[in-house]
Amino acid sequence: MSPSYLYKVTTVGSSAVGKTSIILRYTTGKFREYYTPTLGADFSVKNMQLGDDKVRLQIWDLGSQDFLGAVRAGYYQGTRGVVYMFDVTRPETLEDLWDWKQEVDLHTKGVESLVVANKTDLDSERQITEKDGRALAGKFRAGYIETSVKLNEGVDDAFMTIAKAIRQP
Fold first, then answer.
1. Cα(76)–Cα(159) distance, integer angstroms
2. Domain 5-167: what homologous superfamily?
3. What is the mean pLDDT, run by run of 10 residues, along the chain of 169 residues?
4. What is the bridge-based pairing of β-strands 41-50 and 53-62?
5. Among 128, 153, 157, 126, which Cα is nearest to 144's?
């Protein structure tokens, strides 16, 4: 049976926060140890069960380099949910989410949002507390979840959370 719903989810954030890695982990179960920047955009698809409904998530990974701003604009069309991702070991990646929010707000309307704190396995290097991450999510009127893509912690929960938020009437 084919999915009842198709939800486009767009993942944004600074370079090397784990956007490609979380999508790869969620859609294939694999983790990639090395960093390769996304140039332009890429997407993956994953079917999921959401209550009685079959849902297909189309998860877009947008390149974060400044020179791609004009290119990214077109990829927001049809977005129903946005995952704002930051690295708990790099405070500037949390601050950068304000710029990402401005860009998202410019190109979307009425989308659901989720702030994802990644790399929680690097506890000794952590510089952003859960409280600080939740505070930003509150200002964005977004959900909040912490993940370790490397350890596969919180990854499925993140996509289930954004899918449920999109599904709400």
1. 18
2. P-loop containing nucleotide triphosphate hydrolases (3.40.50.300)
3. 86 95 95 76 91 94 74 89 98 97 95 98 98 98 98 98 90
4. antiparallel
5. 157
Can you tell me which residue has the tokens 């993940």?
147
Give the alpha-carbon dihedral of 100, 104, 106, 109, to 10 degrees.
-150
Element (H, E) at 44: strand 41-50
- Exposure string (b/e) for 71-80, b if CB count within 10 Å is 16 or more? ebeebbeebb
Do β-strands 53-62 and 5-12 pair in parallel, antiparallel, or remain unpaired? parallel
The number of C-alpha atoms within 13 Å of 111 and in the hemisphere containing its C-beta is: 26
Q: Quick one: tokens of 47?
A: 């079917």
Domain residue spans of the chain: 5-167
- Helix, strand or coil, per DSSP, at residue 114: strand
Enumerate residues 6+ apart whose C-beta is below 8 A from 78. 8
The reply to whether the predicted model has a pTM over 0.85 is: yes
d(CA 150, CA 139): 28
pLDDT in tens, 53-83: 999 999 999 887 765 667 778 899 999 999 9
Phi-psi region of 8 (alpha: psi -120 to 50; beta: other; left: phi over 0): beta
